[in-house]
Amino acid sequence: MTVSHHTKPGVKPQGVGARIPRKEDARHLHGKGNFIGNMAMPGLCEVAFLRSPLAHARITGVRIAEEAQGQVFLRASMPDAKDIVADSTLPTYQVSAQPPLADDRVRFVGEPVAMTFAPTRAEAEDLAEMVEVDYDELPVYVDVKAAEAATSDFMHEGWKDNVFVTLNANNNFDDLAAKAEVVVKREIDLSRQCMLPMEGIAVMAYWDNQNSQLVVYTATQVPHLIRTGIAEFLDIPQEQVRVISPDVGGGFGYKCILQQEELCVAWLAKTYKRPFRYLEDRREHLIAGANTREHYYEMTAYADKQGRLLALDAKVTISGGAYSVWPFTVGLETGQALGNIPGPYAFRGYRCQTRCVATNKPGFLPYRGVARTGVCFAIELTLDALAREVGREPWEVRLDNLVQPEQMPYVNVTNKHLDSGDYPASLRRALEMINVDAVRERQKKGEPDGRLIGLGVATYTEQSAHGTSVFAAWGTPVIPGFDQASVKLTPDGGAELRVGVHSHGQGMETTFAQIANEILSIDINRIKLVHGDTGQTPYSSGTYASRSLVMSGGAVSKACKQLLPRVKKIGAHLLGVAADEVTLEDGYACAGEKRVAIAEITNAWYINPQKLPADVDAEGLEVSVGYRPKVDTGSFTYCSQAAVVAVDPATGAVEILDYVVVEDCGTIVNPLVVEGQTIGGIAQGIGTAFYEEMPYDEQGQPLASTLADYIMPGATEVPNIRIDHFETPSPHTEFGAKGMGEGGAIAPPAVLFGAVNDALRAYGVEFAHTPLTPHHVLDALEQSKEKESISRPNVTAGATV
């Protein structure tokens, strides 16, 4: 990895902007993390699930062997547990009810039908084999076309068709489309993927008799939301539920909903007052875990002769799986697609319809990028096609269409408030880093080994930290509001930060400490972050939508600023100076040559109050505040990426030769963390582009149930990534921060497909369907050979593949 960071002068050694290794890495690199799989309790029972072998069927009978009685549970065994219902205020939304265990019907392969427990997982699985289930098969809707064609046996009772929700937008489309001189149409789509965090679903629950509480340890991104969900669907007061999220082995969105298995294990602990645990294995995750990314686009661009967009017409269909998940619903993906297709581009005519269709597959979850990977893929490939149509380079067309810096802040055609930045400058910098002229010269010369060189580019915006008004418009049953943080100084001069968000790899223990250090000057090794426990932390709706640093980090900043005058007042009294003369530096309160350690200030408050000033603030050295940005429609990170690839026409193999990133996430709290997030996201995006696919046969059977079949990129598939940073602070957030945790995963499919299409332009081949495997490349080249001689140069028109 190569980075270029234009660090602002005056950055404190441990404050905002400092390049500090993550504090949490020490325990993880030494195998000392605290994951649910590491935990043990007296009497702990392991849970296993019997899962449906069919995609769509009625359950007509269940027989349980005598020796398994009392240790096998069906839906009828759980009358006090409610179905998981994710309602929505969207007017076209059709509600689905997801039972904790399948009731009279199964709707995807792998849906839990029965639950067992035993001292070991192996014994629990043996008990599951003692259950026989009779099924009466129903029509299987394995894809959106089959689901939309159905006239009966819809996915859920009471539905009028198999469409979860339909959203529409129209802004000046007809008038502006009529002025177009060039019209380009493309069909573009992404295959279904699994999410594959290192740790799957992990949940352990027990009854705490001392506090009369159900305690649920779960690997979740949203502990406070899971508490709400468990209380609601088990019909118990929230004060009787405590949710604790320890170390979490990745999430990517998979762990920001209430899972059936979480509810089932919580029910067992509530009912039997014993500890129970369930750990999802990799095969369960691949078969039954929630899926993502399956989008289908029909794109029509209307432009002038130079390729300047006037209007865009988009039809988006999403395969939503069997159930709408709680609390975000399928409306989240649908709404994000509708609103984010225009991305960073400044056109004013827009017509779009997005639909989410129910299919006999696992439910559709918000995955890293939440619709934006798909919409970026669609708009960027459409712009590539438009550039070919008008005979210009793809980046020339983009530079003409990007929102210009003098237009900022800019409200785009879907009412996104793009807050700050220089989008064209980021693209120009990416082109400079990739050395466009050298790449084009290399293409002309040709490669000694016969491979073909291609260049791809993309620019995107990442809406981050969007809040109340946005989620309310999407109709979700839980709406994020203020994030809260508590800051308490300890008697010996350290600090405890408490926040309601939870880390699953973001480095919060480091970055939040850096924010506190920036204001209070306490050494970050003396700053402890407490998170992931509803019994010890203030409320937050959790970690998702690239919101944690902006929202909870902003709350930490506000709390520290509120605490600062109290510290200074005591310090000033101890120094014998006025409070306005005091500054905090390197753990001391300073006034000229005088200084007193913060530890002496905190000692005075807690241990030796006789040293305090008479008018000391009686609220002490502990503060809790709530925070949300002044504009809650989100802060907009942006990024340009470019890549050079080599395509082997003999084997279909694609090698990434160079990959550059120019990102702007506002004020950078820790460049190392930002770069790690970017590289990890790009690795996932490479998987979307070239490797990852969960195929199904016509009966809805998943065909990639192991990692021998479901291919992911590894270290040899991820190139050296060169990163440059811009810093344009957001005008709406504390210290100008913007979220960026999802960003790296958004652009790679568009960049890499653009590069491959560029490499193969002489063949008349254009790819628009993920994943782009060697097999697909060879098939397309073979079809091209059958149509015309491949020696014919510079053929630019071709059908998408």
Automatic annotation (TrEMBL):
* Sequence segments annotated as region (Disordered): 1-23
Under the heading SUPFAM superfamilies, the entry gives: CO dehydrogenase molybdoprotein N-domain-like, Molybdenum cofactor-binding domain
Superkingdom: Bacteria
* Gene3D superfamilies found in the cross-reference section: Aldehyde oxidase/xanthine dehydrogenase, a/b hammerhead, Aldehyde oxidase/xanthine dehydrogenase, molybdopterin binding domain
Q: Which InterPro entries match?
A: Ald_Oxase/Xan_DH_a/b, Ald_Oxase/Xan_DH_a/b_sf, Ald_Oxase/xanthine_DH-like, AldOxase/xan_DH_MoCoBD1, AldOxase/xan_DH_MoCoBD2, AldOxase/xan_DH_Mopterin-bd_sf
Q: Which UniProt keywords apply?
A: Molybdenum, Oxidoreductase
Return any one Pfam family short name.
MoCoBD_1
Q: Which GO terms fall under molecular function for this chain's record?
A: iron ion binding; oxidoreductase activity
| Aldehyde oxidase/xanthine dehydrogenase a/b hammerhead domain location | 30-139
Which PANTHER family does UniProt cross-reference here? ALDEHYDE OXIDASE 1-RELATED, XANTHINE DEHYDROGENASE
What is the name of the protein in this document?
Carbon monoxide dehydrogenase
Q: Which organism is it from?
A: Neopusillimonas maritima
